[in-house]
Specification:
Elements lengths: L1 H16 L21 E4 L10 E4 L6 E7 L10 E8 L4 E6 L7
Parallel strand pairs: 3-5
Antiparallel strand pairs: 1-2, 1-4, 2-3, 4-5
Amino acid sequence: MLAASLVLATGLTSVLLRPLRRLTAQAAPLASADFVGRVGTVASAFVDEVSGRIQLDDGGAGLILEARALPPDQPLRGQRVVLLAYDPAAHTYQVALSPHSQGV
């Protein structure tokens, strides 16, 4: 009896929820290159041509991204940077200090 009730309830729930699928947002995921041009904050001690991480506010939980900065730039923790380019081979972003960067 319990098993039959479970099967019936599952089927009924499925039928009732199908029309609601169209109401849920089906946003397409962003590609890595879509973040180019956005501003992030240095999360590691610094960013240089070898290593570094930045935090990017994506409207959700946020993202931690691998980043590289060309000399003479070496942004420090807490400074704002602009994502200039994405390197798909290394999975890193080239960044530069934002004109509105805040000091540490």
